[in-house]
Automatic annotation (TrEMBL):
<protein>
    <submittedName>
        <fullName>MarR family transcriptional regulator</fullName>
    </submittedName>
</protein>
<keyword id="KW-0804">Transcription</keyword>
<keyword id="KW-0238">DNA-binding</keyword>
<dbReference type="InterPro" id="IPR000835">
    <property type="entry name" value="HTH_MarR-typ"/>
</dbReference>
<keyword id="KW-0805">Transcription regulation</keyword>
<dbReference type="InterPro" id="IPR036390">
    <property type="entry name" value="WH_DNA-bd_sf"/>
</dbReference>
<dbReference type="InterPro" id="IPR036388">
    <property type="entry name" value="WH-like_DNA-bd_sf"/>
</dbReference>
<dbReference type="Pfam" id="PF01047">
    <property type="entry name" value="MarR"/>
</dbReference>
<feature type="domain" description="HTH marR-type">
    <location>
        <begin position="1"/>
        <end position="132"/>
    </location>
</feature>
Length: 140
């Protein structure tokens, strides 16, 4: 479908701006939120796991994690393997996750208002398929 990328990208920036505005109340950004949500979903994880999941460079994840450590939102778990840094959410991180999740859920409902539920489900199911196709394309 010609023009799909342009249409998708026209909503991406405004959405990230809205998320950054919402998360800014907690001195967070969307890039920091990505680490928080990954840890909430997957539990204690390595920086390599996070960088692989989001397909971003490990130094970028390291900077994000360092910022979250300074804010006492994540902490390192001591392991026998000193080469691999494992992090997890702190109690404060869990609290901030819950507060932000509630606000993000409200935002999700507001941006999806007046869109029939079936269409919402279709979008929700199609986006991971697009990501899978993009990933397959990279492997060629």
């Amino acid at each position: 479908m010609q023009g799909f990328f342009q249409r998708f990208l026209t909503i991406y920036r405004p959405l990230i701006s809205k998320l950054n505005e919402l998360l800014g109340e907690y001195d967070l950004s969307y890039s920091l939120w990505q680490v928080i949500i990954y840890l909430k979903t997957n539990g204690p994880s390595s920086l390599v796991d996070i960088s692989s999941h989001y397909n971003i460079e490990k130094p970028s994840v390291t900077r994000r994690v360092h910022t979250l450590e300074e804010k006492l939102i994540v902490k390192e778990i001591v392991t026998k393997n000193r080469r691999e840094k494992i992090i997890q959410l702190t109690e404060l991180g869990e609290e901030i996750y819950q507060l932000c999740r509630e606000k993000i859920t409200k935002l999700e409902y507001s941006v999806m208002k007046d869109i029939p539920f079936e269409e919402q489900v279709n979008i929700f199911e199609v986006l991971p398929k697009i990501l899978e196709n993009i990933t397959k394309e990279k492997e060629k």
